[in-house]
Amino acid sequence: MDFDKLTKVMRQLALEAGDIIMDIYNSDEFEVKSKTDDSPVTAADEAADAHISAGLRAAFPDVALITEEQADSHRVEASTFLIVDPLDGTKEFVHRRGDFTVNIAYVENGAPLRGVVYAPAKGRLFYTQPDGTSVEEVGALEKATVGTMVPIKVSTPDNSALMVVASKSHRDQATDDYINKYAVNDMKSAGSSLKFCLVATGEADLYPRVGRTMEWDTAAGHAVLTGAGGHVVRFDTHAPLTYGKDGFANPFFIAHAPGVELKSA
C-alpha cells in the first residue's frame, strides 16, 4: 500500500463526505429509515457512503472494500481491506447532537494500520500520517491544503484517578459495573468513534465497550489510537482486537492508554 496516497485520499474523502452530511444535517428535515436490525439510516449515510466508496474504488481498485451501508460487502472474506462507516453515530445525527463521525480505515493482516475520523459538526479531524503516527489537524480544514497538524499522544494515566469515556447512546448497567472497578476521577460521555480519539489525545485514559459493535464502527478510531500509542483489546482476554472476523462483528473491548491497570471482566 502507498501510505502517502492513502493518507491524502482518506483525508480528502472524509472532508468531502462531511460536507455532504452537514448539508443534510442543516436542512429543515430529513427522513429516517430503519434497517433490518432496526438501526436508523438517513440520506446522509447513503450519500456519504456513495461518495466515499466511489473515491476509494477509483484510487485503490485492487483492495477489498467493506462498508456498513453495502450489505453485499459484509460477505467479503479478506485479511487486507478498506473499511468504511460513512456516518458513525446516526442516533447522534438524528437527534442533532453533533457527536457523529466519518470513519475510513485500512486493515492489513487483521490490524487497522491507518485511519481517519472526522467529526464535521465539531470541526475535529484526526488521522494517521503515512508513517503511522497520529495527528489532529486544526484550522480551516481545507480539502486541497493540509493545515496545521498537531501530534497526539495518549496520557500517562494515574490509576488512582482515571479519566473514563463511555458511550452517550449505549450506556448500560454492565458498562457502569465495569467502570466501577476502577478509581475514577472523572467521566465523559461521547458518541461514535470520538471516544477512541479522546483516549488518543489524552483527554481520557480508558474507554470500555460492553455492547455490540461492528468493525466499521471501530477500525478508524482504533488506528488513530494505535498511532497515538494506545491499545484496543478484547474485554474477555485482553488480547489485541483483530479485524476480518466472521461477519465483521466485534466482541466487547477496552480501548486504553498503556499505563492503565486493566481489570478482569
UniProtKB/TrEMBL annotation:
<feature type="binding site">
    <location>
        <position position="85"/>
    </location>
    <ligand>
        <name>Mg(2+) 1</name>
    </ligand>
</feature>
<feature type="binding site">
    <location>
        <position position="88"/>
    </location>
    <ligand>
        <name>Mg(2+) 1</name>
    </ligand>
</feature>
<feature type="binding site">
    <location>
        <position position="85"/>
    </location>
    <ligand>
        <name>Mg(2+) 2</name>
    </ligand>
</feature>
<protein>
    <recommendedName>
        <fullName>3'(2'),5'-bisphosphate nucleotidase CysQ</fullName>
        <ecNumber>3.1.3.7</ecNumber>
    </recommendedName>
</protein>
<comment type="similarity">
    <text>Belongs to the inositol monophosphatase superfamily. CysQ family.</text>
</comment>
<feature type="binding site">
    <location>
        <position position="217"/>
    </location>
    <ligand>
        <name>Mg(2+) 2</name>
    </ligand>
</feature>
<feature type="binding site">
    <location>
        <position position="68"/>
    </location>
    <ligand>
        <name>Mg(2+) 1</name>
    </ligand>
</feature>
<feature type="binding site">
    <location>
        <position position="85"/>
    </location>
    <ligand>
        <name>Mg(2+) 1</name>
    </ligand>
</feature>
<feature type="binding site">
    <location>
        <position position="68"/>
    </location>
    <ligand>
        <name>Mg(2+) 1</name>
    </ligand>
</feature>
<feature type="binding site">
    <location>
        <begin position="87"/>
        <end position="90"/>
    </location>
    <ligand>
        <name>substrate</name>
    </ligand>
</feature>
<dbReference type="GO" id="GO:0000103">
    <property type="term" value="P:sulfate assimilation"/>
</dbReference>
<dbReference type="InterPro" id="IPR006240">
    <property type="entry name" value="CysQ"/>
</dbReference>
<keyword id="KW-0472">Membrane</keyword>
<dbReference type="GO" id="GO:0008441">
    <property type="term" value="F:3'(2'),5'-bisphosphate nucleotidase activity"/>
</dbReference>
<feature type="binding site">
    <location>
        <position position="87"/>
    </location>
    <ligand>
        <name>Mg(2+) 1</name>
    </ligand>
</feature>
<dbReference type="Pfam" id="PF00459">
    <property type="entry name" value="Inositol_P"/>
</dbReference>
<keyword id="KW-0378">Hydrolase</keyword>
<feature type="binding site">
    <location>
        <position position="88"/>
    </location>
    <ligand>
        <name>Mg(2+) 2</name>
    </ligand>
</feature>
<feature type="binding site">
    <location>
        <position position="87"/>
    </location>
    <ligand>
        <name>Mg(2+) 1</name>
    </ligand>
</feature>
<dbReference type="InterPro" id="IPR000760">
    <property type="entry name" value="Inositol_monophosphatase-like"/>
</dbReference>
<dbReference type="GO" id="GO:0050427">
    <property type="term" value="P:3'-phosphoadenosine 5'-phosphosulfate metabolic process"/>
</dbReference>
<dbReference type="GO" id="GO:0046854">
    <property type="term" value="P:phosphatidylinositol phosphate biosynthetic process"/>
</dbReference>
<feature type="binding site">
    <location>
        <position position="68"/>
    </location>
    <ligand>
        <name>substrate</name>
    </ligand>
</feature>
<dbReference type="GO" id="GO:0000287">
    <property type="term" value="F:magnesium ion binding"/>
</dbReference>
<keyword id="KW-1003">Cell membrane</keyword>
<keyword id="KW-0479">Metal-binding</keyword>
<dbReference type="InterPro" id="IPR020550">
    <property type="entry name" value="Inositol_monophosphatase_CS"/>
</dbReference>
<feature type="binding site">
    <location>
        <position position="217"/>
    </location>
    <ligand>
        <name>substrate</name>
    </ligand>
</feature>
<dbReference type="GO" id="GO:0005886">
    <property type="term" value="C:plasma membrane"/>
</dbReference>
<keyword id="KW-0997">Cell inner membrane</keyword>
<keyword id="KW-0460">Magnesium</keyword>
<comment type="function">
    <text>Converts adenosine-3',5'-bisphosphate (PAP) to AMP.</text>
</comment>
<feature type="binding site">
    <location>
        <position position="217"/>
    </location>
    <ligand>
        <name>Mg(2+) 1</name>
    </ligand>
</feature>
<dbReference type="InterPro" id="IPR050725">
    <property type="entry name" value="CysQ/Inositol_MonoPase"/>
</dbReference>
